[in-house]
């Protein structure tokens, strides 16, 4: 068995949790057999002293079929 890993960036205007979940959901539309996700980095955009965008760098692991 081979497990592949893909690096992605999820984005959300609401939360890091939503950014992570969105990346996994988007990946699952084209990648089968996702087995896990690793959150590598969390960043945010700031404007006028407020966070306006959340970003999550994630690694999606999936079985190669």
Give the H and E element order. Answer: EHEE
Helix content: 10-25%
In CATH, the architecture is 2-Layer Sandwich
User: What is the number of strand segments?
Assistant: 3
- CATH topology annotation: Dodecin subunit-like
Number of domains: 1
- Identify the overall geometry: elongated
The averaged pLDDT comes out at: 96
Helix and strand composition category:
alpha+beta
Calculate the terminal CA-CA distance, rounded to whole Å.
8 Å
Low-confidence stretches: none
Percentage of residues in DSSP E strands: over 45%
Q: Which CATH top level class fits?
A: Alpha Beta
The CATH H-level homologous superfamily: Flavin-binding protein dodecin
- Helical element count? 1
Strand order, sheet with most strands: 1-3-2
Q: Which value, in Å, is the CA radius of gyration?
A: 13 Å
Q: How is the main sheet built? A: 3 strands, antiparallel
């Amino acid at each position: 068995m081979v497990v592949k890993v893909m690096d992605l960036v999820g984005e959300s205007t609401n939360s890091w949790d939503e950014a992570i979940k969105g990346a996994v959901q988007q990946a699952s539309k084209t990648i089968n057999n996702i087995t896990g996700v690793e959150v590598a980095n969390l960043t945010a955009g700031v404007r006028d002293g407020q966070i306006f965008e959340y970003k999550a760098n994630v690694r999606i692991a999936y079985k190669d079929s």
